[in-house]
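ok so i was messing around last nite and threw this chain in just to see what happens. nothing serious, just curious
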Amino acid sequence: MPVSAADVKTVRERTGAGFIDSKNALEKSQGNIEAAVKDLIAKAIAKGVSMADKRINTAASQGVVESYIHGGGRIGVILELNCETDFVARTDEFHKLAHEIAMQIAAMNPQFIGTTDLPEKPERPLPEISLMHMPYVRDGSRTIKDLVAEGIAKMGESIRIRRFTRYELGG
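result:
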């Protein structure tokens, strides 16, 4: 089934995938834009997880410190997000990822980053206390770990959430 250039453009804008990948995903889904987007996101997550596993010991000493204020100044977050090079740290895509993670922290109030900093026997389920295991507030079908994996796949570098602090007025 031939697909239109407008549909390919829509899929590319929503996923950041290349022209050929977007076109192939649309053809595979018989022109269904939503199915094509879901397929490309799943592939990006798989690619990102694979890249992250390969680069687990790679130094990520560059990055940004992102701040986010929410609720009329009632909640604030400071996040350190690391990557391998300053080139990637300066990209809009990296800054957007940092902003999305900071918003997640403000909204969900995680206590830990992932499994490495958890106590031996956590009192609550991982999706309630671990940032990496929480459902993404903008898309509950993905976790923050998936969001970071997509960033790794797009940017081609190791990305790590190093630390964060959440402040709440009166809390």
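not much to say yet. The chain has seven helices and five strands.
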